[in-house]
Amino acid sequence: MRVRSISSKGNDGLLVDIECHLSNNLPNIVIVGFANKAVDEARERIRGAFASSNIPLPRKRVIINLAPADIPKADSGFDLAIAVAIMQANGQLQCTLPSNIAFVGELGLDGSVRAVRGLIGKLLYGRAHGITNFVIPAANLQQAQLVPGLQVIAVDTLGQLGGHFSQLATLDSIATGDGSYAMSHNVERGTHAPFSAVVGQGIAKRALEIAAAGGHNVLLSGPPGTGKSMLAKAMAGILPPLNREEILEVTHVHSLSSHAYDQIISQRPFRAPHHSASQVAITGGGAQLKPGEISLSHRGVLFLDELPEFSRTTLEALRQPLEDRTISLSRVKDSAEFPANFILVATANPCPCGYYGTVDAAQSCRCQSWQITSYQRRLSGPILDRIDLFTNVSAIEHDKLLTQAADDSYDQAVSNRIATARHVQSVRYASASKLNSEMTNADTIRFAQLSQSATSLLNTAAANLNMSARTYMRAIKVARTIADLEQMPNVSKNNIAEALSYRQPSW
């Protein structure tokens, strides 16, 4: 007989068959099947849990095999399945387990069943392989209810599970239905500064509105203290809330890496790693291939303040995620692919001191020409080519800083325009999450709907400005978003002109 469980394997899962054999030798528990220390230590957790739950542990040699035995396994979520396999082999279960049931949970020494990491991915993987019944920790129940088409039994203790399968105290099976869940229990991810609280900077605000509506990447440049970071942080407040499918995706990714792996993430992520962060911290990886900052910002914003200060290897590692919206990690022992569909909002100074090109004599640039050139070359052409919107953030007159207060109606109007534009895109692409920035070349040809004058202007600009093919197509995507914000079916000449005004400046 076998008991099934599921292990996390990158962003995916691995179906594991747990077999138990009892023999008349010295009492011991032996776990085989390429298990790491976290799995091997299950022996002591099981001994303590059985004793605390008043469940007899067979005084025999207990051999546990985790199949397939040639794939590494590093997951404390096998504890519950191993305990059930032992009880089944010892004749302590009064019923036959269905073939489409899997057990996931970590045991405490007191017999409690603790939440596990990456449960949503395990449930999705199991469902794709014909498993629709799951026994899970009660602490993971809210997450499980996001996954449609399942029957779950939530347990708090091993004793409850033993009583259920011994038909002493049957537990209720909960149907997840269509995956809808009362969002009143969702975790709030914090508040952000109002968009209207930023004084002036109308062009930069417009660029961020376009970026939020179509999922485009933005680079804000300008001298220090002009509000670049404040603008980027305020952008998180105008993004629409996550839909149900996005909540499922984001919660799963965060549960693989975050300490709060039993919580539901309902707000769009805003991640702002420091420029000293390592490449692995940004892209993901490590011994067990966990997601990095680019995956934790999936469906949200990745804010890279002072972009040229990040290491060159880290910046170049962003090439594939910015293009493919996924990150593929390959190591000697394993490989994994994590989602990385984020809006990049970056800031940069024009030079090391930050005042190159300013007209204020009191704060004129003090850098040598070679320093300016070296600083600007830290951002390679391929990285800049993947940014859709470039805008300058200039200094604000001091007497205006105290004259503007936050305006809720302004913020609401911006949010409504963005929500309307995203709804137009969801109808166009028949997808609740696909945005204009994700259009393929075939989508661009089909849906761009450029007027004749718009096409003529774009082709003339491409020839005069020596635009690359990628820049050409990205300009069309930005113009399509501008047209969606204006609720126009076709892309006009003015839309193309505005999109071109945000192209990369020559510092």
Key words describing this protein structure:
507 residues, alpha/beta, Ribosomal Protein S5, domain 2, Rossmann fold, 2 domains, five-stranded parallel beta sheet, four-stranded mixed beta sheet, 20 helices, 19 strands, elongated
What do you see in this structure?
The structure is a single chain. With 507 residues, the protein is α/β, with parallel strands linked by helices. The chain has 2 domains: 2-181, Ribosomal Protein S5, domain 2 (2-Layer Sandwich), CATH 3.30.230; 195-199 and 216-399, 3-Layer(aba) Sandwich (Rossmann fold). Helices cover 36% and strands 17% of the residues. It has 20 helices and 19 strands. The strands form 6 sheets. The chain has a 5-stranded parallel β-sheet with strand order 12-15-18-11-19. A 4-stranded mixed β-sheet has the order 1-2-4-3. It has a 4-stranded mixed β-sheet with strand order 5-8-9-10. Strand 1 and strand 2 (12-23) form a beta hairpin. Helix 7 runs parallel beside helix 16, helix 7 crosses helix 19 and helix 19 (469-485) crosses helix 20 (493-501). The longest helix has 22 residues, at 408-429. The model is unreliable at 184-190 (pLDDT under 50).
Please outline what is shown here:
36% of the residues lie in helices and 17% in strands. It is an alpha/beta fold and 507 residues long.
List the helices and strands and how they pair.
Blueprint: E1 2-9, E2 12-23, E3 28-32, H1 37-40, H2 42-52, E4 61-67, H3 79-89, E5 101-103, E6 106-107, E7 113-114, H4 119-128, E8 133-137, H5 141-144, E9 151-155, H6 158-165, E10 174-175, H7 202-214, E11 218-221, H8 228-235, H9 244-257, E12 270-271, H10 279-283, E13 284-285, E14 290-291, H11 293-296, E15 301-304, H12 312-316, H13 319-324, E16 326-330, E17 335-339, E18 343-348, H14 369-376, H15 381-384, E19 389-392, H16 408-429, H17 441-447, H18 452-465, H19 469-485, H20 493-501
Parallel strand pairs: 3-4, 5-8, 8-9, 11-18, 11-19, 12-15, 15-18
Antiparallel strand pairs: 1-2, 2-4, 6-7, 9-10, 13-14, 16-17
Helix pairs in contact: 7-16, 7-19, 18-20, 19-20
